[in-house]
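This section describes the prediction task in plain terms. A model, or a person checking by hand, is given the sequence of a single protein chain and must write out its three-dimensional structure as a string of tokens. No templates, partner chains or ligands are provided. The sample shown here is typical of the held-out split.
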Amino acid sequence: MRYNGSPVVSIQTEVKQETLQPGRDLSIPILIPFSVYRQHMREYDSMKVSAIVTDINSPDNTYLAEDDVVLLDPSVSITIIGQARLNREANGQVIFVNPINEILKDCTLTISGSGLLREEIQCRLQDLKPNIQIRANFFVVPYKIGQKTLVVDIDCSTFRNIKGSYTVNVLP
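The expected answer:
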């Protein structure tokens, strides 16, 4: 779905016949596998799911339900090990698990943080097999005191802008 709400492409269409009992709600679960929408959703993070219900006995009775679904990015974990102190090296670690059943290729990791890093850290990651965890260790040398935010961005062949953040309290 584009920023203005218009669809980019129709991903999946299903026809189901169900019976709605008087005075009851009807829930019809649908499954949209990642393999179906992945190619179309690389640059977008939401999709519109629409259901059109027609009464077979009275075809003029048609109802529409729509919902905008925001897709969740895979999680990324960031930690600073120990206390972060002004002008002293502190160890950090990023952990990411490939959540899909295919190899992630062309992966890059970017770490940034005002007051923590004078320049972004960028590195290429190895291809990541399904359900495999990658750990990336790094160092920061904080140059400002107080609460600072460390931001991590992972990009790869299948996902873009997987972000995570971690608040670091820099002591004198």
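For orientation: The first strand starts at residue 46 and ends at 54.
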